[in-house]
Every structure is written in C-alpha cells, then in structure tokens.
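User: Could you walk me through two proteins back to back? I'd like the raw sequence and the structure tokens for each, with a short line separating them so I can tell where one ends and the next begins.

Assistant: Of course. Protein one, sequence then structure:
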Amino acid sequence: MHNNLDIRFSVGGFCFHAVNLICSSIIHNVPLHSHGINCYEIHYISDGYGTLNADGQEYAVTPNTLFVTGPLLPHSQMTNPSSPMLEWCLYLHTDEDEKEKYADIILKFLSEKFWIGQDEQRLLPLFQKLFYELDNRFDGYLNMAELLTAQIVISIARNYIKDSKLTSEPSPAVSERASIIIEEYFLYEYKTASLGKLSRQLGLSERQTQRVIKKYYGSSFGEKKTEAKMSAAVILLEDEALSLADVSEQLGYSSREYFTAAFKKYYNISPSRYRKSKQKL
C-alpha cells in the first residue's frame, strides 16, 4: 500500500495526480461511499469473486474485472468470504480545467463516471510494475511511476472505447467459469447445497445464479440439486454395506422415508427394489 502520493503525470496535455495505490485482498465488505469532485478510483480484480453495487445497480465481479468509479458515484463492494477479491486500486485526482480542449482519449476517460467490464488491455503487469518501482525506489523510479500511471489511464480509456461493458448479467466468459463452479458444487456439495451458498461462490446474486443454471442446464436450482442427489444415490446404493438409512443420511435427507419417496418419484422405482435389481446382474 502506498498512501499520500503525489505522482503528477499528464496524458494528452491533461494533468492527473495519483494519490493512493493499494493492492490487497478484500476480506470485509466495503460500505457504500463516493468520491469527491474530480476524483476517480480505478479498481482491477485479479483474483476472487464478489459483487459491486454502483449507483443502485448490482454487478458480478470476477477475476479480470475492471471498474472505475468517478466523482460522486455511490458504490459498495461485497466480497466472497470463501474466495475474496484481490484488488489493485489506484486513486486519481484531476486538475480542474477546460476539458473540451484535450485529446479524445482523455475526454473519453473523464466523461465516464462509471464503467465496468472485463479488462482487454493487460492492466495487471502495469500495476505490478508500478508497485515494483514504488517498493524499491531505484534511480528514476518517480519518472517510471509517471509513465506507468499514464499507461494505466490510456489502457482504461481503450477498454471504454472497445465498449465491453458488463450489465447485471454475467458475460460469456464469466458464465463459462460459472458453469465449472456449478458442476463442482453439485458434484461435491449436494448434501448441503443451497442457492445462497452457490451464489456466494459465484459472486452473483441468487437471481443471476438461477439464470446461469437455466441457461446451461435448462433446469432450476432445485431440479439440479435433486439430479445431483439422485445421481449420487445410485452409486451409494451399490455399496451393500450401507443401509437405506445410511444412504439417506449421506444424501442429506432427514429420514429414510423422505429419501425413498424422492428416489421413487425420480426413478419410478423404490431404492430397495433398485438395489435388488442391481444385485441380480
């Protein structure tokens, strides 16, 4: 963490001041807050999951998410306790001036009070190099810091121009990662699976999680959970050392009767008859 900096740099003749630079895991949720006039905060998430609330809208935050919060924009961050966000954060202050006379790329950066999307400009190496220079303070480190912060601002504006903006729905890349998490969740945690727990692992809202499951599997969370339990049930029933009560307990059912009813409804055969049929083979 580097606080109370004043790295002065310019892009296209417009002057910026980098005043704070932070790299940390977000262990606790960040409460609602906003920045002052002429202030911009750059957030790059290199790892972990969470949720951003910006100006009343909710957005999923996943690895490689970039978001920028400008002047007076209320925002908060909710991290995923089991996979907290690792955030690289740069706080900028700009000089008041007649912004209209500057280059288009600077006007684009200054005009966006809020932007979120997947970074397509390889920001992480720039942040890492900036920390390296400030940590070690080799000869000329301030000059290097000025160049690197200028590169970061230009790279962010290039992300804007590509207009890869996220909505409250996860992007295709996010959804693909989500599908892997969902598969593993139901494979190993079917006994205690809940929509809330899965949503927190994904860094999505429960509504977004339901939509991703529907998109990839054509079923609801409840249907997917039942499918996972029933798939596990047939494997457990092949173990003759396990009683039906044992199988029921391992699947998370409150009683053998509930398990029997669920199994029969799903397979149109009772678990005891299913086991006998397999024993005859």
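----
Protein two, same layout:
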Amino acid sequence: MSTIKQRQELIAAAAAKMGKQVYAYDEAPKNIMPRKELHQDNGKVTTLEDAIKKTGLKDGMTISFHHHFRGGDKVVNMVVAKLAEMGFKSLTLAASSLSDVHEPLIEHIKNGVISKIFTSGLRGKLANEISHGLMEEPVVFRSHGGRGSAIATGDMHIDVAFLGASSCDPMGNSCGYSRSENAKSICGSLGYALPDAQYADKVIILTDDLVPYPNTPNSISERNVDHVVVVDSVGDSSKISSGAIRDTKNPRDILLAKQAAKVIINSGYFKEGFSIQTGSGGASLAAVKYIRQSMIDQGIKASFALGGITAHMVKMHEEGLIERLIDVQSFDKVAAESLKSDPMHKEVSANEYASADEPGSATHCLDIVILSALEVDVNFNVNVLVGSDGIIRGAIGGHPDTAADSALSIIVCPMLRGRIPCVVDEVTTLITPGTTVDVVVTEYGIAVNPRRPELKERLIKAGLNIVEINSLKEKATSIIGVPAALPFGDKVVGVVMNRDGSVMDVIKNIKG
C-alpha cells in the first residue's frame, strides 16, 4: 500500500502530465453564497436598457423576435422603441413574423433605426407601406422551416435575440405558460423562438412573470440565456387566435372544409396511424372537424397532429382520436393550456418541425396537410403572401415546408373572392411550387395534380366532383372576365427564399 507521500507524488505526476494543477485540499472555498441567494441574485435580472448595453449590440447588427403572441405581441414594439431611444441605427430585424400590431415599426424604418427585415410574413399598415416601397432594402421572406435552417447554418446570423416568455426564473429558464398564480400571459409553444435561443450570440428573455428557481419544465434553458428583463406585459393572450386562425363561420369555408374532408377520407391515406396538419386558414382549420365522425365510425386513430395546434385538435386528442400533438405554435389558449399539462402534447423547435436540413424533422413523417391559398395557378403553384391588389398581406409560414414533405398536400381555395379570381394563369408571387401540391379544393370542383393519377382515380371512384384545373380558371374568367394587370413598379420590395436557401421569387412595389 502506498504512503501518503507516494500518493501525493503520483497525483502531482498525473497533474503535470495533463497540464493541470493539483487540488489544494487545505484551501477554503472562496465567495461562498447561500444557494437560494445564488439563484435569486445572479446578475442576469436587469433592466431592458442595461441588458442591451451588456450584449454589446452595435449599429448594423441583427436582432430577432418570435411571434407566438401574434396580434397580441408587445415585445417587438417595446424593444425597438427602446433601441430608438438609445440611438441605434441600421439594425436588421429578424422576426419569425410581423402583423398589424407592429405598425409603429413604420416610423422606426423612416428614422433609420431599422434598415432591413427578415421575416415569414407581413400584415396591416406596415405591409402596405413596405409594398409601396418604404424600405431601401427588400424584405427577405422565409418559411418557418427555412428560417430555422438559415439560423442553424449561419446564413441568418443573429447578434441579439429578444424573446418574450410567459414565465421565467432568475436564471433564465423560461416557457410560454406559467404555473404561477400571478400569470399574466400565456402563448403555449415557443417553437419559433427556440432556434434563436440556441444560435444567437446573446439572448435576452423578457417576461411579465418572474417565478422562483427552478421554472420547470422549461422551453428555453438558462444555459442559453444571458439576461432576464421583467416588464409589465409581454403580450395579450386573447389575441393569439385572432385574424386568420379564428374558427370560421363562413358558409363557403365550411363547404370547402367538408370537401377537403371527403378528399382525405377517400385518398387512401386515411387509415390507422395517419398523421395530419392544418394550415392557418379558416377552411383548412375546420376540415379536421369533419373527419372526426369518420374516424369514430371507422375506428381510426391518428398517430399525431402537427404544426399550429388548435382547440379542435386538443379535443380530438382528449377523446383518444389523436395520440400525440406536436406543437410548434399554439393557435389558441386551449392548446397553450394543454401543452402545460399533457405529457403527450410535445413542443418542438422550428428546426424539429420543418427544417429541410434535419432528417428527423416532423414534416418528413407527415401524411396529410390541408393548406389555404390566396391564389393557385394552372400549374398548381400557390401564392399565400401577396394579395390580388399587389399588397403583401400574409405569411409564408410552414406552407412550402409541409407541402414538400407530406404524402398528401391539399389546398383549399375559393375559385373567386368577390370579383377576384383565385384560380389564375400564373400566381402573382410563387410561394409553394406546384410540384409539391397534390389537390386543389374549390367550391366548383376538385382538381388533382396530373402527377398523382392514382389519387385522381380514387377520388373519382368515390364520386367526388373532379375537374381539370384549367376548367376552374376558365370558369372564373367566364364569370368575371380577365382582371386588369396590377400596376407594379420596378423596385424590388421583397425577396422570397425557397426552404433550401435558394431565391424563388421577388415582389415588386405597387404603384398608387
């Protein structure tokens, strides 16, 4: 047996070989702090201005935000107003999406605080101003999966991420719901914020509910958070289901939803263990309700529902019709509350959801997706971003991601909206290539992509009204004539990126 001196010599030799120091047994630990105090007063919790200063943010850098509070978001306007007050200029704003509530950005663009925007969508007066040429640099539009990939690869580098959270502890563990009695806001999944938290150089969490450590389970870990800022409100939960994702009562949307349900039921993909996602349009969201009874009658259960999760999907999950929910964005408070309490309701990042670069992303396992459209052309190409007046008024979202990866992609779209045709010769802006679209459902008939003859045969056999897509375009023209060409200018106000990082289309300014 070795003596103490021999052991010390061996330890010293091992330490020297590794280039390390020998542990000093008799040296008392320094800076002892009670554990509770360590967690509650760690230096991360600070003011918004101090947090910005500590990140080292400089003019010309890129800041990012998520849109899980949708029309109720308060973080973007709050942060950009503070940055303007602090004198920042020429910042790139990389938000997962922007909406009507972000109208104050117009002045910050005019004043030079914001010089570039990367996003999935624009709405409201901000979109209108940009469509008319407000910005010198074109807005870069990416799908949700494309944005996640761009962040992960460094193609879209984020210097500072400002992420709103419904609850957060002093260490930075945060999520989109709260177990606190003082909870002011919930948004559910933080899926679109997770790539920002993982890859941004610096991360600031803004919360209106600072809870004791540890805030578990959490969406964003303390190891990815640099600063925590407590504010009065990060968002209005009542508005996460506003606008495009309201439950529809429109008779035409209900008709389209019922027709889409018939397509699903007779497609050959409606069988035990199928998976499904619905887009954000009223008809596509409603379609899932109309397959419910057939699932009950035939004893069929879905393996999972994906994407923006709604109260309808939660109900079907609770009824045992959908085994699991995979949630990148909670579309209402019911879904947000379900995420908090149900272990079979899983939150995923944008990359896990729809990145083309991740072999295991959920869209690669998706059987059926039901999506809406502003326009569809005779080659099955889809536009969900630019309106018939040439104004940007929507979002790419996960539209091209899910259409490309799913086994069956269904587009629900009226043939006409008022005096405007929705089935056209060529879409105003290409968002989802026709090679990835299988079926177009309109109130005047169902068109099947010629690439899917076996699907067309099944639907004809089921007695559905199958028509050629050219006939839908011709019928629309016969009713309302050929619309006048839009007065586009020569300035490029938007660039549409494909999910693989290539440029797919451009958007020009609209005159007048």
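The chain is about 30% helix and 20% strand.

Let me know if you want the two compared in more detail.
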